[in-house]
Task: structure prediction
Amino acid sequence: MPELPEPFAPHPARDASLASMLAVEAGDKAAWLALFADDAVVEDPIGPSPFDPEGTGHRGKAAIEAFHDTVIGPNQVRFRIDQSWAGGLEVANVGTISTTLPDGTVVHTDGVFTYRVGGPGTDSDGLLVALRAYWEIDRLRFG
Result:
């Protein structure tokens, strides 16, 4: 279970962020993918990175699944959220993602992690349409 701040009050985007974190921590790829709209985008991190050299994000379920298989799936991932700010259809969670790599190395990623859901009356109502992560490779912590 992710470590969450008090309060972590219900909100559509906050609820989707929690469902995402729970699915990732459980290693439940199908549950995680089911949270996304067909045309969703994952930018983790935002901008060019080893995971996304062009910095355009992983767009659509096939690209998001490939991101999962490469970045999330092989690892054990835990979330600690220190603050959560919701507004409109979005939430910004401030905290740390701790990832244990297959060789046992632990990487701590401090950042701001935003989630946007589709609005009422749309095909993506309640589904994630964007997951964007603000973090810097040079600020990763190990151990």
Notes: The chain has a mean pLDDT of 97. The domain at 12-136 is CATH 3.10.450.50 (Nuclear Transport Factor 2; Chain: A,). The longest strand covers residues 76-87.
